[in-house]
Design brief:
4-stranded mixed β-sheet; L-arginine/glycine Amidinotransferase, Chain A; globular; alpha/beta
Length: about 325
């Protein structure tokens, strides 16, 4: 039976790309590298780092001090969740599903981002399967038991799949990932250039248990969106026919982006290690969010690590990682 294991299940390795392009990161390059080192160390998981240049390779080795495996490989930027594959387990072992990638609807098309997924699959020893539609891993949230959460804003966007319907996607999700229930949310955060990736708004803490954000106050720029997401999740049932248990944590509220408007900052973009959950933090609200999130992960310790520099690139910890499940 095909399935995408939930991220709390045993993982072999976390794949990620080291910030390398000075023309993309500018003054945030060094701070972003420091944040990478901090959150990867906190995860306590085996990590494979891909480095696009000799300088990035040397920097990763210096900062991580032998804690990670480093491989030279070209890529456009660090968003391995989207440029890498989705790993699927089944009777044949491990499969790496590579969806078409077009730079989040043609916004950022960079050399190397089209080939990284195949390299990660090769390093994992997984059979590579090419999907016939455009999408990104950050748009798909799996519970490990046949349920998937996604957003219409992203998956059905004409900038990815013209004339694509819910039924079109659901058929492919079943064939490729073993999904029998898709929960559709309408839209993601304001200022999210990914067009509403779900890993910023709704995540499974366990099968049947989903976490979303509550507005941090009346001035939260995403207040209406977050309230609607919670309502949609509370009405949903999963592949097992269960009504979802919905837990909420505070959002970071307004975090200023480069243009002065709200950046797509989210406490939801955590990663799961063997003993810890590493949640991105942006301001003093991270402490409250971390305490609330701890209730969703009783078997792990929730820790917060700063992600303001990584956020300038458009995402956070989950966005820059690709987790490989054990088989």
């Amino acid at each position: 039976m095909l399935r995408v294991p939930h991220e709390t299940e045993p993982q072999t390795v976390i794949h990620t790309c080291w910030p390398a392009a000075a023309d993309l990161w500018e003054e945030d390059l060094d701070p972003a590298r420091a944040e990478f080192a901090a959150f990867l160390s906190a995860a306590g998981a085996p990590v494979t780092v891909y480095a696009a240049t000799a300088e990035a390779e040397a920097d990763a080795r210096r900062r991580m001090a032998g804690k990670v495996r480093v491989i030279r490989e070209p890529y456009g930027d660090v968003w391995a969740r989207d440029t890498g594959p989705v790993f699927v387990t089944g009777e044949g072992g491990l499969t790496a599903v590579r969806m078409k990638f077009n730079g989040w609807g043609g916004k950022y098309e960079l050399a190397g981002d089209q080939t990284l997924g195949a390299r990660i699959a090769k390093e994992a020893g997984a059979d590579l399967v090419h999907a016939d539609f455009t999408c990104e891993g950050g748009a798909l949230e799996f519970d490990g038991q046949g349920t998937l959460i996604t957003t219409r804003q992203c998956v059905l966007n004409a900038n990815r799949n013209r004339a694509f319907t819910e039924a079109d996607f659901e058929a492919r999700a079943e064939a490729l990932f073993g999904v029998t229930r898709v929960i559709w949310l309408e839209e993601g955060l304001i200022g999210d250039h990914t067009d509403g990736h779900v890993d910023n708004i709704a995540r499974f803490a366990a099968p049947g248990v989903v976490v979303c954000q509550a507005p941090s106050g009346p001035d939260d720029p995403n207040a209406k969106i977050l309230i609607q997401i919670r309502r949609e999740l509370e009405r949903a049932t999963d592949a097992q026919g269960r009504r979802l248990k919905v837990l909420t944590i505070p959002s970071p509220g307004f975090v200023e982006g480069h243009d002065g408007g709200p950046a797509a900052a989210s406490h939801m973009n955590w990663i799961v290690g063997p003993k810890t959950v590493v949640m991105p933090g942006y301001n003093t609200l991270a402490k409250d969010a971390g305490r609330a999130l701890q209730g969703a992960f009783p078997g792990r310790r929730v820790v917060a690590r700063e992600s303001n520099a990584i956020l300038t690139g458009g995402g956070s910890f989950h966005c820059v990682t690709c987790n490989q499940p054990a088989v």
